[in-house]
């Protein structure tokens, strides 16, 4: 892909955790991002704080205040996991916690962007998450899929890469329909697809495919590409950056 300089990666809970335990995938993702950081500006939106909190304190997540408490317990644990791994590659990271209110006016967005620019200029990777432990619903993004789309647009990135536990966007849910077929390029998203119920794969996940499609639509309307692929197959992201797309789904309006 041409003219790509600043890239946002979004890592889903289902990519980071397997049976509640942090998977080896985090090692691979960190190594991959550390290498890319040499030639690109990298931002990371990471889920997983609630899952990390649950490993220390198994509270009932059906209560909002418990979920918020788990996020508060888990966020520093998640950051420590990242920090230690990135340290091996001599990459510094920063924690950035955002609520929707931080991006709700041009002025506030500008402040946040200036700070992000300082981090990126100094090759520090911002690890971004929703600051949801004391937030009320009105100022929440709701899930990291949409947060990552806003971060991509408002912080001037050229591409959003979503790493999930599925290889692509399929014409049907691949977990329930064996005959589902992957779609390589999506140029248009029907509104009716966005009205489906959310269907996350994991009990810790909040998104599912619908929030990914919403994120994609937000970016497509602003002419920014989004690539959805499996967090276990990072070489596909490399291929995409080199201009070859062999797999995954690229959401992009093609100029005709
Ligand atoms: P993450 O933790 O990466 O955000 P989610 O579990 O929230 O991932 O969302 C990914 C899940 O969405 C997949 O594992 C799959 O079960 C489900 N899904 C539903 N419909 C589709 C579809 N049409 N194409 C791909 N995945 C789908």
What would you say this structure looks like, in words?
- The protein has a single domain (6-251), classed as Acetylglutamate kinase-like (Carbamate kinase, 3-Layer(aba) Sandwich).
- The protein is of the alpha/beta class and 256 residues long.
- The chain is 38% helix and 19% strand.
- Helix 6 runs parallel beside helix 8.
- The strands form 3 sheets. Strands 5-6-4-1-7-11-12-10 form an 8-stranded mixed beta sheet, with helices on both faces.
- The protein has helices at 13-16, 25-36, 49-56, 64-87, 106-121, 144-154, 191-194, 209-220, 235-241, and strands at 6-11, 17-18, 21-22, 41-46, 93-98, 125-130, 159-164, 169-170, 182-183, 185-186, 226-230, 249-251.
- It has 9 helices and 12 strands.
- It binds adenosine-5'-diphosphate.
- Adenosine-5'-diphosphate (ADP) is lined by residues 12-15, 164-166, 169-170, 172-175, 199-202, 205, 207-209.
Outline the secondary-structure elements.
Layout: E1 6-11, H1 13-16, E2 17-18, E3 21-22, H2 25-36, E4 41-46, H3 49-56, H4 64-87, E5 93-98, H5 106-121, E6 125-130, H6 144-154, E7 159-164, E8 169-170, E9 182-183, E10 185-186, H7 191-194, H8 209-220, E11 226-230, H9 235-241, E12 249-251
Parallel strand pairs: 1-4, 1-7, 4-6, 5-6, 7-11, 10-12
Antiparallel strand pairs: 2-3, 8-9, 11-12
Helix pairs in contact: 3-4, 6-8
The structure holds adenosine-5'-diphosphate (ADP).
